Amino acid sequence: MKRNQTYCLQCGLPLVGRADKKYCDDGCRNSYHNARMMDANKICRPYHRSLKQNYGVLAEHFNSGQDLVSKDELLMQGFNPKYATGMDLLEDGTMCYGLYDLEYFEQSGRFIKIRKADIPPPVIWGH
Ligand SMILES: [Zn+2]
After folding, report:
1. Domain boundaries defined on the chain
2. Which of 41, 98, 108, 124 could disulfide-link to 86, CB 3.0 to 4.6 Å?
């Protein structure tokens, strides 16, 4: 029985050989993966930049011993609350956001409390 003709995912030429082949050769495979990685980089880069910017702002306060900062000050320093690396609900119902190895949550009077992250992985992921 003749199997359906398949085509290289990169250059579109008909493929010969193994049925599970996806590319003509390593060159086409690499080009394909590089192109996809470039797309991914293009999409991810602005998010990474914002996360690093946020982390830089928080870490500067935290590392200088200041773990309570006003929201407005953070915003003025370029902190963008849209970007975080994680979130978790604290026992009192406060939402706590993660930024790499730091976490922060709102306290009364528009203040943000910063501390070292110590969040166990969410239960649904099991152990
Ligand atoms: Zn090819």
Report:
1. 26-125
2. 98
